[in-house]
Design brief:
The complex is a heterodimer of chains A (about 600) and B (about 100). Chain A is mostly helical and about 600 residues long. Chain A has helices at about 5-25, 25-30, 35-55, 85-105, 110-135, 140-155, 165-195, 200-205, 215-230, 240, 250-255, 260-270, 270-275, 280-300, 305-325, 330-355, 370, 375-385, 395-405, 410-435, 450-475, 485-505, 510-520, 520-525, 530-580, 585-605, and strands at about 60-65, 75-80. Chain A starts with 5 loop residues before the first helix and ends with a helix. Chain B has about 100 residues and is mostly helical. Chain B has a single domain, classed as Helix Hairpins (Orthogonal Bundle). In chain B, helix 1 packs antiparallel against helix 2 (about 30-55) and helix 2 (about 30-55) runs antiparallel to helix 3. Chain B is elongated and about 50 Å long. Classes of the chains: A mainly alpha (about 600), B mainly alpha (about 100).
Chain lengths: ~600, ~100
């Protein structure tokens, strides 16, 4: 092992060691908070190492043979360190660290054993996500891809005693699996066409023009399907809002900052391959933009604070995918990083609110600014960043995405994304006004969150601002060449959304019920999530249950039928043959004598 | 001089009479008698072949058969008596406990 990859390996190893320790040593896990401290210590070391990797701007590939075969291993495992994975390493370890610290306070009421289980899963998740980020080939990426899916399932279903949580976990698992099937089929097809899983080999072939295999577009589409499931793109986005049944820190880590961005990361990582199939790229851009718009409209009518954020995440993932599809994957990746920061911030702040009020419904909160000013301020910072207000982080990445989509002459997606920007500002400020300002509805006395929760919140808020200012000073390298009217446009859209929300929810100048009535069908459809959940439930019932019934029918009447017929035949035959057994010795002797006689006849006539 | 075929025909006749008796007699003792006849037909065959082939082995074998037959009859009669004690009958047609 060279020195080059020792640090990335350390980043990867620490959470795994922590996971092994917690999984194997039961008494340690059952201490609860002790398990948390172990996990946090491991991830802190990991974060430090990731920072060093990032500062040194390491670039290295190192692989080890995995599946041996004649003429070199078929598949390898290893680490791929480049600017892309460096930035992702820092994001993942940073958000994980903050989330785990936050969880100590947020889940303080849990009994020790479940808390230890929680930290065990958390460690496994961080390890899996880092392995995915560092993967140098499709196969390793797929393995870790599935591992993060498993951790997502385990953590969504953390409160598995609640039927809703258990159902949401299963739903998330199955729907992402639907995309993963396409992913693995695509990977294997690509391998059979090129003979390698390695990104480097594939990129070389792509550059040399040796990748013009027939059906490459279909293969890349199948691989993209994996991203559709994982990154909650239309029409497989339905699992993400339900995933909010998990603990809020889990939502912040997995369903906002890290795992759901794995699809975007994968598309960005394999961008040279997707560049060969412009048709698929255009499709990615359209689907991404449509997802963004669709999710934004659903967020506008949602009353559950976490679900608003979940739809917002789906919407922003649509942004990233649209950027990747428009060939502006650096812009998409930049948005991924900034979004990871401020969406984790928003989720954690929402968690603090839920912790204080004890409900997810924003219309039962209200006037919380006075009770919890810290949380309110950081939530507003996150909202401003998400709405795209300069000089916060979200503004630059969002503008870069819009610029990239405009550059690619994708007018349709551009318009959808611009409308989404307006809606984003609207629904986020709607939450802010209803939750933190306005009349107080909450019963009891909401209290400010403890410092263990406030610390990570403030850190994320400061980072959101600092990253934004860094981008402003650095000029940002991603949105050069964008038309000059873009920045005023995006600020204008954000301002319009803010104004709309202010008029409707703060001043109460416009009756919201009347607006809903005016937009009748749209409001109706958005509240019912455009019937997609019902459609899937119907499909489930229609296809799977009908299939099960068919199988049941075959089992009952064909398989069992054959057996019943056989036994009936045997019984009948036995009944018929009973009369031969007379029980009289003489009859038997008669049979024997007659048989011997027949044998003699046979011997005389035929044996000659 | 009487030839070998005459002896064989006699044996076959005796065997057939014995078999007929076994198959048709109602009385268990009669069936035993039929069995005796069939065994003695075998003995006639053995002695005849021993005589015409000049091989003493057949005679020795016949001696064994006779002694074993005595034992068999003794056991058979004992069984018949035992059956009679239990069922108060030795009619073969009514001894059908093993009917299926």
């Amino acid at each position: 092992m060279t020195v080059d990859v020792a640090l990335p390996l350390l980043v990867l190893a620490m959470p795994f060691v922590s996971f092994l320790l917690l999984a194997v040593v039961g008494p340690l896990r059952r201490t609860g908070r002790g398990a948390g401290v172990v996990s946090i210590a491991a991830i802190a070391v990991s974060f430090g190492a990731a920072l060093m990797v990032w500062r040194r701007e390491l670039v290295a590939v190192r692989t080890w043979g995995w599946i041996p075969a004649d003429g070199g291993p078929i598949a390898t495992v290893g680490v791929l360190v480049d600017p892309l994975s460096n930035a992702m390493l820092v994001l993942v370890t940073l958000v994980s660290l903050l989330v785990q610290i936050y969880s100590l306070a947020y889940l303080a009421d849990e009994r020790p054993a479940p808390l230890g289980r929680y930290y065990t899963y958390q460690s496994l998740f961080v390890f899996s996500m880092l392995g995915l980020v560092l993967a140098p080939g499709f196969l390793q990426m797929f393995v870790f891809w599935e591992l993060v899916g498993l951790c997502s399932y385990l953590l969504i279903g953390f409160w598995y005693e609640r039927p809703a949580a258990a159902r949401a976990a299963v739903k998330a698992f199955w729907i992402t699996k639907l995309g993963d099937v396409g992913f693995i089929v695509g990977i294997v097809l690509l391998w059979s066409a090129t003979g390698t899983f390695e990104f480097d080999d594939l990129f070389e072939k792509a550059q040399a023009g040796a990748l013009a295999v027939p059906g490459l577009a279909a293969i890349m589409f199948l691989i993209y399907l994996g991203a559709v499931g994982k990154s909650a793109q239309f029409p497989l986005h339905v699992w993400l809002p339900d995933a909010m049944e998990g603990p809020t820190p889990v939502s912040a880590l997995i369903h906002a900052a890290t795992m759901v961005t794995a699809g975007v990361y994968m598309v960005t990582r394999t961008e040279p391959l997707f560049a060969l199939v412009p048709g698929v790229l255009t499709l990615i851009a359209w689907v991404g933009a449509f997802t963004a718009l669709l999710a934004a409209t659903m967020a506008c009518v949602e009353g559950d604070i976490k679900r608003v954020l979940a739809y917002s995440t789906v919407s922003q993932l649509g942004y990233m995918m649209a950027a990747a599809g428009a060939g502006a994957s650096p812009a998409g990746f930049l948005h991924l990083l900034t979004h990871g920061l401020f969406k984790a911030l928003l989720f954690l702040a929402a968690g603090a609110v839920i912790h204080a009020v004890g409900t997810n419904d924003i219309f039962r909160m209200g006037g919380l600014f006075r009770a919890m000013p810290h949380t309110a301020i950081v939530f507003v910072v996150g909202t401003l960043a998400l709405a795209g207000v300069p000089p916060l982080a979200g503004f630059f990445s969002k503008e870069a995405v819009l610029g990239g989509v405009w550059e690619a002459h994708l007018t349709g997606p551009f318009l959808m994304l611009a409308l989404t920007a307006l809606l984003t500002a609207f629904y986020m400020f709607r939450v802010v006004f209803v939750t933190f300002f306005g009349r107080a509805h909450a019963g009891g006395h909401p209290h400010e969150a403890p410092w263990l929760m406030r610390g990570p919140l403030w850190l994320l808020a400061i980072l959101t601002v600092v990253v934004g200012i860094r981008l402003a000073l650095g000029g940002g390298d991603a949105h050069e060449g964008a038309p000059g009217w873009l920045a005023p446009l995006s600020v204008g859209l954000a301002a319009a959304g803010f104004a709309l929300a202010w008029v409707m929810y703060q001043r109460g100048a416009v009756d919201t019920a009347r607006v809903a009535a005016a937009l009748g069908p749209l409001d109706y459809a958005a509240r019912r999530r455009y019937g997609l959940d019902a459609l899937y439930a119907g499909l489930y019932r229609g296809i799977i249950l009908a299939f099960s019934r068919l199988i049941g029918w075959i089992d009952r009447y064909v398989v069992d039928g054959i057996l019943n017929a056989l036994t009936a035949l045997t019984l009948r035959a036995g009944d018929g043959l009973r009369s031969i057994q007379s029980g009289r010795a003489q009859d038997y002797v008669y049979g024997v004598a007659f048989g011997v006689l027949l044998l003699f006849v046979w011997a005389q006539l035929w044996r000659r | 001089m009487i030839g070998l075929p005459s002896y064989l025909v006699l044996a076959a006749l005796v065997f057939s009479i014995g078999l007929f008796g076994v198959l048709t007699r109602r009385n268990a003792v009669g069936i035993l008698l039929g069995i005796e006849l069939m065994l003695n037909a075998v003995n006639i065959n053995l002695v005849a072949f021993a005589r015409f082939h000049g091989d003493l082995l057949g005679l020795i074998f016949t001696l064994f058969t006779i002694s074993i037959t005595v034992a068999e009859v003794a056991v058979g009669l004992a069984i018949v008596i035992a059956i009679f004690r239990v069922r108060r009958t030795v009619e073969a047609d009514r001894l059908d406990l093993l009917r299926g």
